[in-house]
Structure formats: C-alpha cells, structure tokens
Write a structure and sequence with these properties.
The chain has helices spanning about 70-80, 100-115, 125-130, 140-145, 175-180, 195-200, 210-215, 220-230, 255-265; strands at about 5-20, 30-50, 55, 85-90, 145-150, 155-160, 165-170, 240, 245-250, 270-275. It is α+β, with helices and mostly antiparallel strands and about 290 residues long. The chain folds into two domains: about 5-160, Ribosomal Protein S5, domain 2 (2-Layer Sandwich), CATH 3.30.230.10; about 165-275, Alpha-Beta Plaits (2-Layer Sandwich). Strands 1, 2, 3, 4, 5 and 6 form a six-stranded mixed β-sheet that branches. Helix 1 packs parallel to helix 2 (about 100-115) and helix 7 crosses helix 8 (about 220-230). The longest helix is centred in the middle third of the chain and has 16 residues, at about 100-115. It is globular and about 55 Å long.
Length: about 290
C-alpha cells in the first residue's frame, strides 16, 4: 500500500435549513438537505515513521489544537493506538467561515484517508462516530452522499438529487455559527417536513432559518443575495448553513459564460463561482459501509 494519498474535499450547500426544536443540552434540532458540490480543498496525507502528526504549511492564525485536520488525525491515531504518524498538507480553496462545510470536509477526508493509509479498516459508522466529536457536519462528509439531514446533523438519509449547477458567492465576511444560534430572535419551531415532501417540490422549501439573523449581523449577506437576485432573476437565492455564503440554483438555459464574466467583477474581496452538484464525495469508495 502506498504511503501517501491525495484527496479532494468537497464543499456542500444547505438546499434548505429549518430549525425544528432544541434539546435540553442546548443543541438545536434541524432539518436540511445537504448537496455536495465540486468546490474542493486538496488534502495530501503521508505516513511517516515519527510518532507525531506533522502539519505542513499550517493556516496562519490557526493553532494546531484548533486545526480540524490535525485534530482529526490525532483523534484517529489515539483511538486506534497507532505507533507512527502522518504528514498533512492542505490546499485551502473553500473559504473559511462561509457555511460551506470546508473545515468539516477536510476533517472527514483526513479520517477517511488515514483509515486507508494506516490500513485500519474501520467501517463508515465508526468513522462517523469519531467525526461527530469534531463537528456536527463531519459525519455527512464521511457518509459521502447527498443527504436529508436531521437531529443535530448526525441523522442522515440518502436523497436522490438531480444534476444541478449553482452560483455561489462568499462576500468575504465570515459569521461565527455560535453568534447565529445564540440569538434570541432565531426561529426554533419550524414545522418538520418529510423527504417525500421536499422531493415533490424542492423550490418550495428553499429557505434558511438562520438567514434573517445573519442579514442583521452581516449586511454583506443581504448585498450578496441582492446581487444574485439582480443578475439571475427569479432564482430565489438563499444562504447556506449559518452563512455567510449565498447561492442559487441555475436554470439550464442560464447564460453561464455571461455569468462567469459578471462574477469577475464582484466587489473587492468577494469570491464567486459556478459549481456543479456532486452525487458522492470523491473519497466515497475508500471505506466500507458494512
């Protein structure tokens, strides 16, 4: 087996996000559909004989104890009592603090990749349990398929989604998830829906309970929503996750070449892309689902 591996770590969009309740411990209960997209970080993992987790070119300002790929590697190493280590290199393309799940995807790919490199043969369910210790979205990326999501993010059911392009804009302002979920004005009693209900009319559920709070705390979210609404009329743009990225599904007749040109002239610091929905995480086949 090779001592190194490269993985593409995809982002996700919340096609909708409803908060349907709150547990006694304060965690919010949600419903969402998570759509994988082809906006990816690139993760390189390498086995090393030294008994350490070595991060190459760490993200400035992020200490190791807060770096999700380091934490994921150390968690798996400790869980399986690995005598040896790993070298981690990560090319960040997905904006941080954008509601696109980049950090969670990186952590999931670290668990998947090291499970493969170290020949641990842990099954998907075990990796998901470990991933939940790192963040509520991590199990989804290990699950590896588009999903109808419930609970605090750990209840996942595969959902069939048609191939779709999206325009996604990050207005260069991150929003701390805690800021959104601690706000007393946050809607916490959205009526639950079913998978069948969503599939019967996906556009009817294109809403995000976090969006109203995010717009108050980050005016750039509203500006990005307005930009898409103007450039892609009737597309019903929506925020992803707890923000601050916004997106809209594109009609097949959309002039994507013209839209690409418009995206080149976004306000300074903004990042915009046309992305394609994925059916599976590129690392899907590396682990057993038994």
């Amino acid at each position: 087996m090779s001592n190194g591996i490269e993985l593409r770590c995809p982002a996700k969009l919340n096609l909708f996000l409803h908060i349907v309740g709150r547990r006694a411990d304060g965690y919010h209960l949600l419903q969402s559909v998570f759509q994988l997209i082809d906006w990816c970080d690139i993760l390189n993992l390498k086995q090393i004989p030294e008994n350490e987790i070595r991060r190459i070119d760490p993200i400035p300002g992020i200490p190791p104890e807060q770096d999700l790929v380091v934490r994921a590697a150390q968690l798996l190493k400790d869980f399986c009592q690995i005598d040896g280590g790993a070298e981690i290199r990560l090319e960040k393309n997905i904006p941080m603090g954008a509601g696109l799940g980049g950090g969670s995807s990186d952590a999931a790919s670290t668990l998947i990749g090291l499970n493969h490199l170290w020949n641990l043969q842990l099954e998907k369910a075990t990796l998901c349990q470990l991933g939940l210790k790192l963040g509520a979205d991590v199990p989804f990326f290990i699950f590896g398929q588009n999903a109808f999501v419930e609970g605090i993010g750990e209840k996942l059911q595969t959902i069939p989604l048609e191939s779709q392009d999206f325009v996604v804009i990050f207005p260069n302002q991150g929003i701390a998830t805690a800021q959104i979920f601690q706000d007393p004005q946050l809607t916490r009693d959205h009526a639950p829906i079913t998978i069948d209900g969503f599939l019967a009319s996906p556009s009817s559920y294109r809403s995000n309970d976090c969006q109203a709070i995010a717009v108050q705390k980050c005016p750039e979210v509203k500006q990005a929503l307005d930009w898409i609404d103007k450039v892609v009329p009737n597309s019903a743009p929506c925020m992803s996750g707890s923000g601050s990225s916004v997106f809209a599904a594109l009609d097949p007749k959309t002039d994507t070449a013209n839209l690409e040109n418009l995206l080149l002239n976004l306000p300074k610091g903004w990042i915009g892309r046309i992305v394609r929905g994925l059916n599976k995480n590129p690392a899907y086949n590396l682990i057993s689902s038994d």
